[in-house]
Design brief:
- The complex is a heterodimer of chains A (226) and B (198).
- In chain A, 29% of the residues lie in helices and 38% in strands.
- Chain A has 7 helices and 11 strands.
- Chain A has helices spanning 7-25, 35-41, 43-49, 123-137, 140-146, 169-172, 215-220, and strands at residues 54-64, 72-81, 85-92, 96-101, 104-109, 115-118, 147-154, 159-166, 177-182, 186-192, 198-209.
- Chain B has a 4-stranded antiparallel sheet with strand order 1-4-3-2, covered by helices on one side.
- In chain B, a hairpin with a 2-residue loop joins strand 3 (186-191) and strand 4.
- The N and C termini of chain B lie far apart (89 Å).
- Classes of the chains: A alpha+beta (226), B alpha+beta (198).
- At the A-B interface, strand 3, strand 4, strand 5, helix 4 and helix 6 of A face helix 7 of B.
Chain lengths: 226, 198
């Protein structure tokens, strides 16, 4: 008597496992319909972020472009000060500082002359600053206002992933969709633009400060005149 | 030689001359008859950039047909509602081919009129840098776009504009003085306690 073939069953089982795994990992399959759900999903990082006025740490910024086989990787340090803005200091592959505040954007390479774009002259600057602050500090009110939200929690890995799709076309010009993932704190942000290119930002060694920004931190956000 | 011979010769010469003129008129002028009003046409041919002229003509024609209205109120929410109602009234009036009060398309669509002629477009700053041969800042700008979040602020992606010339042109062209900001899908300006939507 011929033995029943087991391979088709094994393949079917493997495919089922793979498909269910992908669905579980894809946050965009799980819409977050209200703010309470969002707060529950982000409860662990929120407890750290609630009182934090200043966040500082290291980043790994990776641009994955369709036309280039290898990602473009940059390493450096960041500081977010809630009422001041974003300080982004790239150390590798070259030294570059980008400061985003409500007043504008200042950038300088290798200690060279500072180039400044005022938020009044370029409304996109303020928009980008607001998006960055909302993403990195998980400002639930601002996120719920500007994005369609999705989320999934991986109980086994003890991690959560938040998916965001911009409602406004103005924000969709910056990115088509984003995911923010982490455990007790935000660990990774992935921005996918309209062309499908991805920017992956990994954050490590984050320190939180609940007091007002120190003089040193304030000094980072003083936009020098060009 | 008969006495009428020089006269006949002169008549024949004039006839031939007129025939030659008529031939030139028939083959060169009649196929494309136009009154030349373009003062640039008086310049030597090498000084005229027909592509640039065509781009400028198309761009001016598009902008000349647009009208911009500001709808304001003491309260931003009221201003937005009023702007939406006003836009709807304009739309139903049928007086305009299209009415837009929200940013309802991505930047590539909005900038299409520029992108079709991108080979002719440089911001004054970039033009000056290229003319003077000081290109180091341009290289640094390209690297910064690729490796830092500043690249996210560029209207066009890195693949579309790796050196950032078109992006810089678009940013320079879009530069406005004042308190304009993007809020949701609407351009908002605030002045003397009143909010206005474009």
């Amino acid at each position: 008597m011929k033995k029943p073939a087991v391979w088709p069953w094994l393949w079917a089982l493997l495919a089922l496992t793979f498909v269910s795994g992908v669905q579980a990992a894809d946050p965009f399959a799980h819409p977050v319909t209200n703010e309470a759900e969002l707060r529950s999903l982000l409860s662990r990082p929120a407890s750290k972020l609630r009182d934090a006025q200043v966040l500082a740490g290291q980043f790994r910024h990776s641009r994955e472009l369709r036309e280039i086989p290898k990602p473009l990787i940059a390493l450096g340090e960041f500081t977010f000060a809630r009422d001041l803005g974003v300080y982004w200091h790239t150390r590798q592959p070259f030294d570059s500082v980008v400061v985003l505040t409500g007043d504008g954007l200042a950038q300088s390479d290798e200690g060279g002359p500072v180039q400044r774009i005022s938020a009044e002259g370029q409304p996109a600057v303020r928009l980008l600053k607001n998006i960055f602050m909302a993403l990195f500090t998980l400002d639930t009110k601002s996120l719920a206002r500007d994005f369609d939200l999705f989320g999934v929690e991986d109980q086994k890995e003890n991690r959560w992933t938040l998916g965001l799709k911009p409602r406004a076309k103005a924000i969709a010009g910056v990115f088509r969709e984003a995911t923010v993932a982490g455990a007790d704190e935000v660990q990774q942000i992935v921005l996918t633009d309209a062309q499908g290119d991805r920017t992956v930002i990994d954050l490590t060694g984050i320190s939180y400060s609940s007091g007002p920004p120190s003089a040193d931190v304030r000094a980072l956000f003083v936009l020098p005149q060009p | 030689m008969t006495p009428g011979a020089p006269l006949r010769l002169r008549f024949l010469s004039w006839s031939l001359g007129i025939l030659a003129m008529l031939t030139v008129f028939a083959f060169r002028v009649l196929p494309d008859p136009r009154v030349e009003t373009d003062i640039l046409a008086l310049l030597p041919q090498a000084q005229i950039d027909r592509g640039l002229d065509a781009a400028l003509d198309e761009f001016s024609a598009q902008l000349a047909r647009q009208q911009i209205f500001l709808v304001g109120s003491d309260d931003l929410a009221d201003a937005k509602l009023a702007a939406a109602a006003f836009a709807q009234a304009l739309e139903t009036s049928g007086a305009f081919a299209s009415v837009r009060w929200q940013i309802d398309s991505d930047l590539a669509q909005r900038a299409a009129v520029y992108l079709a002629h991108r080979a002719f477009l440089l911001s004054p700053k970039d033009q000056q840098a290229l003319e003077s041969g000081v290109t180091e800042p341009l290289v640094k700008r390209a690297l910064r776009s690729a490796y830092t979040p500043a690249g996210l602020m560029q209207p066009l992606g890195l693949a579309e504009d790796p050196l950032g010339f078109t992006n810089d042109f678009l940013l320079a062209a879009a530069g406005v003085d004042g308190k304009t900001r993007v809020e949701g899908n609407v351009l908002v300006a605030e002045r003397a306690g009143a909010s206005s939507c474009w």
